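Worked problem 6 (solution included).
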Amino acid sequence: MSLIQAKNLTKVYGKGDTAVTALDHISLEVNAGEFVTVMGPSGCGKSTLLHLLGGLDRPTSGQVLIEGHNLTDLSDTKLTELRRRKIGFIFQFFNLIPVLNATENAALPLTLDGVKSADAKAKASDWLNKVGLGNRLRNRPDQLSGGQQQRVAVARALVAEPALILADEPTGNLDTRASDEIAALLRQISDDWGRAVLMVTHDPRIAAYADRIVFLKDGTIVDETRLETRNLDNAGLVADKIQAMA
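Solution. The predicted structure is:
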Protein backbone atom coordinates (compact mmCIF):
# COMPACT_ATOMS: atom_id res chain seq x y z
CA MET A 1 0.00 0.00 0.00
CA SER A 2 1.34 3.43 -0.93
CA LEU A 3 2.31 5.55 2.04
CA ILE A 4 3.23 8.61 -0.01
CA GLN A 5 2.29 9.55 -3.56
CA ALA A 6 3.45 12.33 -5.84
CA LYS A 7 1.11 12.98 -8.77
CA ASN A 8 2.29 15.07 -11.74
CA LEU A 9 4.46 17.08 -9.37
CA THR A 10 5.86 20.24 -10.95
CA LYS A 11 7.94 23.03 -9.43
CA VAL A 12 8.84 26.17 -11.35
CA TYR A 13 10.98 28.94 -9.90
CA GLY A 14 10.63 32.44 -11.33
CA LYS A 15 8.38 33.67 -14.12
CA GLY A 16 8.52 34.42 -17.81
CA ASP A 17 11.91 34.30 -19.50
CA THR A 18 13.68 33.68 -16.18
CA ALA A 19 11.49 30.71 -15.17
CA VAL A 20 13.36 27.52 -14.24
CA THR A 21 11.56 24.18 -14.08
CA ALA A 22 13.10 22.21 -11.20
CA LEU A 23 10.62 19.31 -11.43
CA ASP A 24 8.51 18.44 -14.46
CA HIS A 25 5.37 16.32 -13.90
CA ILE A 26 6.93 13.71 -11.63
CA SER A 27 4.81 10.83 -10.34
CA LEU A 28 6.22 8.56 -7.63
CA GLU A 29 4.95 6.20 -4.94
CA VAL A 30 6.68 4.86 -1.84
CA ASN A 31 5.18 1.99 0.12
CA ALA A 32 5.12 1.54 3.87
CA GLY A 33 8.44 0.09 5.04
CA GLU A 34 10.15 0.61 1.66
CA PHE A 35 13.63 2.15 1.36
CA VAL A 36 13.91 4.28 -1.79
CA THR A 37 16.92 6.30 -2.92
CA VAL A 38 16.78 9.25 -5.32
CA MET A 39 19.93 9.89 -7.38
CA GLY A 40 20.99 12.11 -10.24
CA PRO A 41 23.42 14.85 -11.27
CA SER A 42 23.67 18.12 -9.39
CA GLY A 43 20.74 20.42 -10.11
CA CYS A 44 18.46 17.64 -11.35
CA GLY A 45 15.78 18.33 -8.71
CA LYS A 46 16.58 15.76 -6.02
CA SER A 47 16.39 18.07 -3.02
CA THR A 48 13.44 19.96 -4.49
CA LEU A 49 11.54 16.68 -4.73
CA LEU A 50 12.35 15.83 -1.13
CA HIS A 51 11.25 19.27 0.09
CA LEU A 52 7.93 19.00 -1.75
CA LEU A 53 7.27 15.49 -0.46
CA GLY A 54 8.01 16.67 3.08
CA GLY A 55 5.79 19.73 2.86
CA LEU A 56 8.75 22.08 3.27
CA ASP A 57 7.79 23.74 0.00
CA ARG A 58 4.63 23.80 -2.11
CA PRO A 59 4.46 22.64 -5.75
CA THR A 60 3.56 24.84 -8.69
CA SER A 61 1.15 22.10 -9.73
CA GLY A 62 0.43 18.48 -8.89
CA GLN A 63 -0.28 16.75 -5.61
CA VAL A 64 1.51 15.12 -2.68
CA LEU A 65 -0.50 12.66 -0.59
CA ILE A 66 0.67 11.09 2.67
CA GLU A 67 -1.63 8.37 4.03
CA GLY A 68 -4.36 9.94 1.91
CA HIS A 69 -3.81 13.49 3.20
CA ASN A 70 -3.32 15.95 0.34
CA LEU A 71 -0.54 18.27 1.48
CA THR A 72 -1.47 20.88 -1.11
CA ASP A 73 -4.91 21.32 0.50
CA LEU A 74 -3.64 21.85 4.06
CA SER A 75 -3.27 25.19 5.81
CA ASP A 76 0.20 26.11 7.07
CA THR A 77 -0.86 25.16 10.62
CA LYS A 78 -2.21 21.74 9.59
CA LEU A 79 0.80 21.12 7.37
CA THR A 80 3.17 21.85 10.26
CA GLU A 81 1.21 19.45 12.46
CA LEU A 82 1.30 16.69 9.84
CA ARG A 83 5.06 17.14 9.30
CA ARG A 84 5.70 16.91 13.02
CA ARG A 85 3.69 13.71 13.47
CA LYS A 86 3.96 11.84 10.18
CA ILE A 87 7.44 12.71 8.84
CA GLY A 88 10.94 12.55 10.29
CA PHE A 89 13.72 14.59 8.65
CA ILE A 90 17.45 13.84 8.51
CA PHE A 91 19.78 16.44 6.97
CA GLN A 92 23.41 16.50 5.85
CA PHE A 93 24.57 18.92 8.53
CA PHE A 94 22.66 17.34 11.46
CA ASN A 95 20.91 20.61 12.50
CA LEU A 96 21.37 19.93 16.21
CA ILE A 97 21.06 22.73 18.76
CA PRO A 98 24.55 23.27 20.25
CA VAL A 99 23.45 24.11 23.82
CA LEU A 100 21.23 21.02 24.15
CA ASN A 101 22.48 17.54 24.97
CA ALA A 102 21.69 14.45 22.88
CA THR A 103 18.52 13.61 24.80
CA GLU A 104 17.19 17.16 24.63
CA ASN A 105 17.92 17.39 20.90
CA ALA A 106 16.24 14.07 20.16
CA ALA A 107 13.21 15.02 22.26
CA LEU A 108 12.56 18.31 20.40
CA PRO A 109 9.77 17.11 18.04
CA LEU A 110 7.77 15.83 21.03
CA THR A 111 8.49 18.91 23.14
CA LEU A 112 7.29 21.17 20.31
CA ASP A 113 4.16 19.04 20.02
CA GLY A 114 3.25 19.68 23.66
CA VAL A 115 4.44 16.40 25.22
CA LYS A 116 5.56 16.74 28.84
CA SER A 117 9.32 17.20 29.14
CA ALA A 118 9.89 14.07 31.21
CA ASP A 119 7.90 11.90 28.79
CA ALA A 120 9.61 13.42 25.75
CA LYS A 121 13.08 12.82 27.24
CA ALA A 122 12.19 9.24 28.18
CA LYS A 123 11.11 8.51 24.60
CA ALA A 124 14.21 10.24 23.24
CA SER A 125 16.47 8.19 25.53
CA ASP A 126 14.81 5.01 24.29
CA TRP A 127 15.49 5.89 20.66
CA LEU A 128 19.04 6.99 21.40
CA ASN A 129 19.62 3.57 22.93
CA LYS A 130 18.18 1.91 19.82
CA VAL A 131 20.55 3.82 17.51
CA GLY A 132 23.58 2.96 19.64
CA LEU A 133 24.03 6.12 21.71
CA GLY A 134 22.88 4.93 25.11
CA ASN A 135 26.22 6.02 26.61
CA ARG A 136 26.04 9.54 25.14
CA LEU A 137 22.67 10.76 26.42
CA ARG A 138 24.05 13.83 28.19
CA ASN A 139 26.67 14.83 25.63
CA ARG A 140 26.28 18.03 23.65
CA PRO A 141 26.92 18.04 19.87
CA ASP A 142 30.47 19.42 20.28
CA GLN A 143 31.28 16.38 22.43
CA LEU A 144 30.19 13.93 19.72
CA SER A 145 31.76 12.76 16.46
CA GLY A 146 30.04 13.49 13.16
CA GLY A 147 28.64 9.96 12.99
CA GLN A 148 27.34 10.21 16.55
CA GLN A 149 25.71 13.57 15.83
CA GLN A 150 23.93 12.04 12.86
CA ARG A 151 22.70 9.21 15.09
CA VAL A 152 21.18 11.84 17.38
CA ALA A 153 19.49 13.31 14.31
CA VAL A 154 18.18 9.86 13.38
CA ALA A 155 16.77 9.39 16.89
CA ARG A 156 15.16 12.84 16.63
CA ALA A 157 13.59 11.86 13.30
CA LEU A 158 12.13 8.69 14.82
CA VAL A 159 11.02 9.95 18.24
CA ALA A 160 7.49 10.90 17.16
CA GLU A 161 7.02 7.45 15.55
CA PRO A 162 6.52 8.84 12.02
CA ALA A 163 5.59 6.58 9.13
CA LEU A 164 8.03 8.29 6.75
CA ILE A 165 11.69 9.29 7.07
CA LEU A 166 13.10 11.79 4.56
CA ALA A 167 16.90 11.93 4.42
CA ASP A 168 18.72 14.60 2.38
CA GLU A 169 22.36 13.58 1.80
CA PRO A 170 22.53 12.09 5.33
CA THR A 171 26.11 10.85 4.86
CA GLY A 172 27.42 13.82 2.87
CA ASN A 173 29.33 15.23 5.84
CA LEU A 174 30.74 11.92 7.13
CA ASP A 175 33.78 9.74 6.48
CA THR A 176 33.40 6.35 4.76
CA ARG A 177 33.08 4.28 7.94
CA ALA A 178 30.49 6.56 9.53
CA SER A 179 28.63 6.77 6.20
CA ASP A 180 28.32 2.99 5.99
CA GLU A 181 27.10 2.85 9.59
CA ILE A 182 24.40 5.45 8.94
CA ALA A 183 23.35 3.67 5.74
CA ALA A 184 23.02 0.41 7.66
CA LEU A 185 20.99 2.25 10.30
CA LEU A 186 18.62 3.58 7.61
CA ARG A 187 18.27 0.01 6.35
CA GLN A 188 17.36 -1.03 9.91
CA ILE A 189 14.74 1.75 10.09
CA SER A 190 13.03 0.11 7.12
CA ASP A 191 13.57 -3.56 7.97
CA ASP A 192 13.19 -3.66 11.74
CA TRP A 193 11.11 -0.58 12.56
CA GLY A 194 8.83 -0.61 9.52
CA ARG A 195 9.28 3.00 8.45
CA ALA A 196 9.40 4.11 4.83
CA VAL A 197 12.70 5.82 4.01
CA LEU A 198 13.18 8.17 1.06
CA MET A 199 16.79 9.29 0.74
CA VAL A 200 18.63 11.64 -1.59
CA THR A 201 22.31 10.82 -2.07
CA HIS A 202 25.08 11.18 -4.63
CA ASP A 203 27.03 8.21 -3.20
CA PRO A 204 26.55 4.81 -4.96
CA ARG A 205 27.82 3.01 -1.84
CA ILE A 206 25.01 4.45 0.24
CA ALA A 207 22.37 4.06 -2.48
CA ALA A 208 23.23 0.35 -2.63
CA TYR A 209 21.42 -0.25 0.69
CA ALA A 210 18.01 0.67 -0.77
CA ASP A 211 15.20 -1.49 -2.14
CA ARG A 212 14.74 0.76 -5.14
CA ILE A 213 16.67 3.60 -6.81
CA VAL A 214 14.95 6.38 -8.72
CA PHE A 215 17.17 8.30 -11.14
CA LEU A 216 16.39 11.95 -11.93
CA LYS A 217 17.72 14.07 -14.77
CA ASP A 218 16.59 17.57 -15.73
CA GLY A 219 13.66 17.40 -13.35
CA THR A 220 12.18 14.14 -14.62
CA ILE A 221 12.44 10.47 -13.68
CA VAL A 222 14.52 8.74 -16.35
CA ASP A 223 15.02 5.31 -14.78
CA GLU A 224 14.14 3.13 -11.80
CA THR A 225 16.08 0.10 -10.58
CA ARG A 226 14.91 -2.43 -8.00
CA LEU A 227 17.78 -4.09 -6.13
CA GLU A 228 17.49 -7.79 -5.39
CA THR A 229 20.10 -7.51 -2.63
CA ARG A 230 20.69 -4.48 -0.42
CA ASN A 231 24.39 -4.16 0.23
CA LEU A 232 27.64 -2.73 -1.10
CA ASP A 233 27.75 -5.33 -3.90
CA ASN A 234 25.33 -3.08 -5.80
CA ALA A 235 27.56 0.01 -5.64
CA GLY A 236 29.21 -0.73 -8.99
CA LEU A 237 25.85 -1.19 -10.72
CA VAL A 238 24.60 2.12 -9.34
CA ALA A 239 27.80 3.94 -10.32
CA ASP A 240 27.54 2.61 -13.88
CA LYS A 241 23.97 3.91 -14.21
CA ILE A 242 24.95 7.33 -12.93
CA GLN A 243 27.85 7.42 -15.39
CA ALA A 244 25.54 6.49 -18.26
CA MET A 245 23.23 9.39 -17.37
CA ALA A 246 25.99 12.00 -17.33
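Discussion: The two ends are 33 Å apart (CA to CA).
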